[in-house]
Inverse folding.
């Protein structure tokens, strides 16, 4: 993939200095020294520190200098001294000092284990955080200081604050106070109001979330919860209560027992928990261990059953809050670029002022003249730039929310709409974002025959016939008093008919699962137990609960073809046949699905025949080794996977009573082992997984969101690199990546093997590097190991992949991946999600988009932009994002041009009149120039568009140009500077040459020509006219002409009514604008932009 990328382990500086070529010593003290002894032993045994890290087939022949070929994967050498300070060291020092002060003022409480007492009120003295969630950025005391800091940390606003304050000094005053303080006050007022509204909305959202509490109890000692807001999985998970509390006569007895819960200290891991429950008032005292099965984390939902529990963690110590980063104020790339340009303009301002003072000969109090020149030329950096940009951002947000093609879209962060047009990396969640999390059964393959959605009625008929024959045979056997098991075992082995194979396959699917049917209670409140005969088994009143939506889809399919799961508890389950007969099966053993085994199984006994059967289903990679030889399984699994179906292989094995008793004895003995319990249990189970009869192959489709495939294709054509980050299983994530066309059908997929050490990570990265143009699929655990030892190299390789899928990701890992891409690539990132587990990723990204879906509104409320469907993201980016960026780029450069041209005229005026620090235009002329005379036409540029929205959607490749930043670059900025200098010089020199007697005529001629030039330049900049643009031009011109009658203080009214005034103004205006119109015409003819080719 990248032949020039070598892999290097993390190592100390001393080791790096001692190595001349490719051998490296062990990592020195630091993070690497804190690894567990297991990793150290593995690394030492592999002799990784003594062998070269091979990165090519030929061998490692390059010296260490090859490592520095990578622009981003190199080891950065820190700059020291003055160079370091100038290049950003001062900012680092200021930030460090601020962080130090914050840490001093807000010392974090040390997290530690805690004991929660029941029945001992006097012992409950330990203080815990307030049980509330806070997503607000400020409080009552920090709001004003915080908002002001966010504003004045930008050079543009800080500069104008200093300039405005200088007008309080009489010696430096060159105009009226309102000419400086009014624009600055307007900007601050708008910003404070906007932040206040956003803060109030956050407060309301927090209040709504904090008002939701748990207040339920279960009688059976178990309940199902949904954890989609925590880990992104919408599967229902079974939680078990403490067993000794389930034997209490009444609920009130919970408050009279003497017991306590000891729990570990708060931590990030949402998949583990360690604690103990001790009851002291029993003889002897009862001790029960607590694990993840006994916990309900905050932000989870009780899906079925009722619970009452002891609160262990509150507020900021809960798992959900600890996995959520604090909200930050996002700043767009355009704002950062403009901040740099204003610094360049400030240097030009200082240089111009120094030149003026130098030409003045440093006579008199030259420092005072220097400051006056700085104030005279201060319009080089226009305060109206901030005003126009903020108003433009508000206009873009309004356009987005009013777009009928993307209904329900909400702009929650109005400061970064241009970011939608600069994105390179798109990181998306899977469940609820790309998919609906609605599983639909699509295919049943028996080896010789395959059934699809259009042939399910055949399965239903064959199943009905098969159960009718079985029922008649059973009746006959009962009449002759022949044991059915003996009769069946003595029958000769013949090839099974299709009908019997369908029967066996459907029955296996209906039995091999962890699904529980639930019937809603219709009795009075509080009735929680019903006799089995009194339960309502109607289909309308039944819902299914399971830890996997795949299993629910399979059981719903068996119901649709006639075999219905009607009841299940911990020891038995009941099926209803097409004829209405109830079949009862005793559950002897259940082997749950794990990511390591990739399969699950169940051993059941048929109560009517006493047959014991071991059913198993799982992924084809796990099942192909345990089923009998066949020649079709691998090929059909590949075919279904290419169709985007999630496949499961179903098999069975009949067991005699002796075989099962032998297995049960060995299984129970293995579970009692103290050492290597997991391995021994797995070995016993594997003894059954031999020569199993292959029954069928099932295919389930996870329904995609509407138009996901064309949307992803559009985004890829627009140049975006798409990564999928999900908490789901690897097989599921890979399947969805293919079905959604995130990974094309012809594209290879490299599944990164699980790695736990540096050596394994090194070998797997070598294998991955040899793959070309293939998508990467990696788990969160393996990703963590790779980033620990080979962060630069891994990110560099992954960024070259056409698509990346990260599965089993925690919320913290998602945010970490976003930050890695930002740091290593310097590109803009966008995160998309719909669950609470996506909030950290959304907040860490440069642009966060939330989708309102089944997983709640937490992600959409925390996002910068909220959409109702994934397909709306395409138009949001390629139409609104593109338009917002190009409009803001044109608007900002034109506003700077407006300030540069008047500053050029001031410089020419001061030069002609002996370098006097006297303003050319005073009072209302300066205010009117930036407001009523030119504001409406300039601001109307927010309505401009180079191509129609339909064309932008049809040709998403136009979006690629935006990532290069060509609409606002040093080149375009310098072009506008040259235009400003040319036009400012022509206007001022023209007025000086053509005026005859009085100086006031110079002001009238030059200012009128200046206003006309600005109006004509707006017309020159516009690419597509809108009727409001024409109204703005005419309105501004009318305002200026009407105001001439009231500007006696600045103009000679009789003079401006003469023909001489008109022709002089017209001549100067034509000379300043006509050459630019000619140049624009020639450029469009000789080198037209890409969008103009499409328009034509």
């Amino acid at each position: 993939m990248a032949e020039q990328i070598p892999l290097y382990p993390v190592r100390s500086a001393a080791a790096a200095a001692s190595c001349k070529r490719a051998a490296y010593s062990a990592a020195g003290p630091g993070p690497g020294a804190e690894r567990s002894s297991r990793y150290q032993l593995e690394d030492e045994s592999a002799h990784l520190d003594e062998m070269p890290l091979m990165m090519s087939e030929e061998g490692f022949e390059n010296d260490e200098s090859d490592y520095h070929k990578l622009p981003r994967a190199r080891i950065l050498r820190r700059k020291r001294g003055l160079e370091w300070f100038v290049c950003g060291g001062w900012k680092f020092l200021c930030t460090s000092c601020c962080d130090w002060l914050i840490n001093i003022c807000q010392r974090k409480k040390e997290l530690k284990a805690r004991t929660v007492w029941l029945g001992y009120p006097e012992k409950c003295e330990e203080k815990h955080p307030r049980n509330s969630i806070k997503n607000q950025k400020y409080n009552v005391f920090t709001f004003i200081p915080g908002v002001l800091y966010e504003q004045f940390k930008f050079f543009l606003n800080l500069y104008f604050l200093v300039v405005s304050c200088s007008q309080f000094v009489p010696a430096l005053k060159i105009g009226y106070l309102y000419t400086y303080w009014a624009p600055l006050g307007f900007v601050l007022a708008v910003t404070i109001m906007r932040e206040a509204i956003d803060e109030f909305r956050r407060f309301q959202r927090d209040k709504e979330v904090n008002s939701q509490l748990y207040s339920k109890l279960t009688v059976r000692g178990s309940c199902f919860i949904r954890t989609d807001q925590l880990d992104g999985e919408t599967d229902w998970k079974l939680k078990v209560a403490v067993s000794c509390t389930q034997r209490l006569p009444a609920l009130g007895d919970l408050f009279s027992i003497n017991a306590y819960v000891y729990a570990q200290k708060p931590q990030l891991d949402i998949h583990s928990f360690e604690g103990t429950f001790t009851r002291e008032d029993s003889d002897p005292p009862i001790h029960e261990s607590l694990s993840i099965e006994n916990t309900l984390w905050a932000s989870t939902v009780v899906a079925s059953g009722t619970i009452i529990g002891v609160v262990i963690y509150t507020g900021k110590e809960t798992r959900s809050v600890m996995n959520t980063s604090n909200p930050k104020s996002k700043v767009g790339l355009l704002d950062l670029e403009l901040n740099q340009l204003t610094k360049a303009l400030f240097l030009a301002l200082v240089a111009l002022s120094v030149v003026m003072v130098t030409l003045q000969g440093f006579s008199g109090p030259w420092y005072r003249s220097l400051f006056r020149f700085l104030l005279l030329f201060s319009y080089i950096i226009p305060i109206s730039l901030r005003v126009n940009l903020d108003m433009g951002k508000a206009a873009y947000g309004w356009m987005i929310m009013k777009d009928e093609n993307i209904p329900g879209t909400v702009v929650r962060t109005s400061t970064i709409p241009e970011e939608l047009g600069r994105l390179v990396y798109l990181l998306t969640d899977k469940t609820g974002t790309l998919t609906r999390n609605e599983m639909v059964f699509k295919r049943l393959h028996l080896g010789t025959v395959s059934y699809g959605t259009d042939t399910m009625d055949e399965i239903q008929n064959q199943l009905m016939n098969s159960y009718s024959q079985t029922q008649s045979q059973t009746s006959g056997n009962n009449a002759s008093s022949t044991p059915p098991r003996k009769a069946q075992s003595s029958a000769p082995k013949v090839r099974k008919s299709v009908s019997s194979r369908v029967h066996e396959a459907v029955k296996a699917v209906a039995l091999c699962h962890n699904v529980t049917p639930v019937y809603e209670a219709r009795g009075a409140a509080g009735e929680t137990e019903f006799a089995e005969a009194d339960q309502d088994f109607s289909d309308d009143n039944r819902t299914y609960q399971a830890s996997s939506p795949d299993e629910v889809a399979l059981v719903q399919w068996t119901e649709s073809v006639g075999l219905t799961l009607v009841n299940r508890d911990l020891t038995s389950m009941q099926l209803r046949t097409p004829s209405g007969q109830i079949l009862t099966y005793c559950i002897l053993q259940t082997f749950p699905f794990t990511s390591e085994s990739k399969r699950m199984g169940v051993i059941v006994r048929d109560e009517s025949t006493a047959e014991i059967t071991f059913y198993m289903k799982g992924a084809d990679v796990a099942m192909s080794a345990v089923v009998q030889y066949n020649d079709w399984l691998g090929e059909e699994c590949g075919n279904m996977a290419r169709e985007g179906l999630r496949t499961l292989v179903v098999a069975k094995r009949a067991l005699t009573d002796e075989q099962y008793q032998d297995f049960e004895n060995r299984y129970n003995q293995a579970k009692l082992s103290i050492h290597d319990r997991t391995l021994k249990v797995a070995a016993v189970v594997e003894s059954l997984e031999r020569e199993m009869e292959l029954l069928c192959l099932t295919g389930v489709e996870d329904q995609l969101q509407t138009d996901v495939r064309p949307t992803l294709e559009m985004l890829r054509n627009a140049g975006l690199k798409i990564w999928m980050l999900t908490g789901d299983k690897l097989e599921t994530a890979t399947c969805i990546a293919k079905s959604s066309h995130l990974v094309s059908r012809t594209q290879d997929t490299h599944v990164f093997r699980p790695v736990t050490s540096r050596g394994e990570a090194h070998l797997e990265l070598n294998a991955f590097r040899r793959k070309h143009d293939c998508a990467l699929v990696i788990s969160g655990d393996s990703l963590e190991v790779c980033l620990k030892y080979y962060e630069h190299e891994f990110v560099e390789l992954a960024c070259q992949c056409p698509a990346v899928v990260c599965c089993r990701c925690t919320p913290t890992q998602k945010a970490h991946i976003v930050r890695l891409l930002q740091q290593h690539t310097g590109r803009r990132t966008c995160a998309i999600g719909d669950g609470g587990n996506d909030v950290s990723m959304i907040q860490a990204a440069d642009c966060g988009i939330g989708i309102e879906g089944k997983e709640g509104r937490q992600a959409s409320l925390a996002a910068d932009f909220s959409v109702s469907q994934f397909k709306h993201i395409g138009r949001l980016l390629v139409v609104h994002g593109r338009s917002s960026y190009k409009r803001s780029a044109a608007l900002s450069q034109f506003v700077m041009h407006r300030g540069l041209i008047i500053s050029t005229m001031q410089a020419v005026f001061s030069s002609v009149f002996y370098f006097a620090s006297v303003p050319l235009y005073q009072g209302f002329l300066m205010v009117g120039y930036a407001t009523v005379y030119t504001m409406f036409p300039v601001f109307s540029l927010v309505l401009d568009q180079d191509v129609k929205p339909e064309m932008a959607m049809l040709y998403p490749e136009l979006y690629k140009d935006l990532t290069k930043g060509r609409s606002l670059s040093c080149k375009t900025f310098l072009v506008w500077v040259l235009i400003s200098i040319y036009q400012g010089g022509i206007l001022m020199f023209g007025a000086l040459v053509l005026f005859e007697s009085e100086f006031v005529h110079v002001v009238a001629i030059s200012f009128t020509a200046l206003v006309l030039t600005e109006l004509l330049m707006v017309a020159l900049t516009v690419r597509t006219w809108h009727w409001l643009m024409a109204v703005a031009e005419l309105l501004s011109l009318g305002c200026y002409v009407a105001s001439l009658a009231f500007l006696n203080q600045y103009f000679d009214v009789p003079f401006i009514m003469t023909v001489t005034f008109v022709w002089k103004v017209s001549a100067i205006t034509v000379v300043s604008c006509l050459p630019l119109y000619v140049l624009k015409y020639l450029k469009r003819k000789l080198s037209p932009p890409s969008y103009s080719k499409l328009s034509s």
Q: What stands out?
A: Confidence is low (pLDDT under 50) at residues 1-80, 214-220, 479-494, 523-534. Residues 438-465+499-518+541-701 form a domain with the Calcium-transporting ATPase, cytoplasmic domain N fold (CATH 3.40.1110.10).
